Amino acid sequence: MATPKNDKNKNGWISHGLVAENRRARFDYEIGETLEAGIVLTGTEVKSLRLGKAQIAESYASPEKGELWLINAHIPEYLQANRFNHVEKRPRKLLVSKKQLARLDQEVSRAGNTIVPLKLFFNDQGRAKLLIGLGKGKKNYDKRATSRDRDWNRDKARIMKEGGRG
User: Fold this and answer.
1) Which end of the chain has fewer CB atoms within 10 angstroms, the N or the C?
2) What is the pTM of this model?
3) What angle is formed at CA 71 by the lines to CA 66 and CA 73, rounded to 5 degrees?
């Protein structure tokens, strides 16, 4: 699923597109399957997201009491809302089907698996969505191998661009 980059209109609001991305997740976790989940937000949270301000780098999703919750995601206060603002790091409910929740709960109960948020975006209908992935934590040697492969691919692309003149 390819989400476009931020589509900001003239007053700086994002109508649809990427709001936040967890770039570190694919480095720290081996991501298996991904799933698009809806997210329950208040009005000021949506307005803050439309300004493009959110951080999901240190967050995770947890199945608790028959529901899926996004924990530790930071959506800053919307400054124009004064006393009706939201709590910045409150747990937020994720919307998935019962079948998907049961499968995710079963996978998390296995050793080493966790539900990692990958991207927070607005879809074409303007609804906030969260792309979550089922991840298994990488060991340090796996991370070094990932870094080495990425560096080699970058060098290889540069060499090919120069015409192989090394």
Assistant:
1) C
2) 0.76
3) 140
| Residue 94, number of CB atoms within 10 A of its CB | 24
Q: Are 117 and 18 a contacting pair, CB within 8 Å? A: no
Residue 73 has a CB neighbour count (10 Å cut-off) of: 25
Q: Which two tokens stand for residue 166?
A: 């090394």
Task: Tell me how far apart the terminal alpha carbons of the chain are, to the nearest angstrom.
Answer: 37
Contact 133, 25 (CB under 8 A): yes
CATH architecture of the domain with residue range 11-138: Beta Barrel (2.40)
- Measure the CA–CA gap between 17 and 37, rounded to whole angstroms: 15
What mean pLDDT value characterizes the chain? 83
Q: Give the pLDDT confidence of 42-57 residue by residue, as tens digits.
A: 888 888 888 888 888 8
Measured CA to CA, the distance from residue 115 to residue 94 in angstroms comes to: 12
Q: Three-state SS for 121?
A: strand
pLDDT tens digits for range 82-113 = 777 877 888 889 999 999 898 888 888 877 68
Cβ neighbour number for residue 56 with a 10 Å cutoff: 24
In 3-state terms, what secondary structure has residue 153? helix
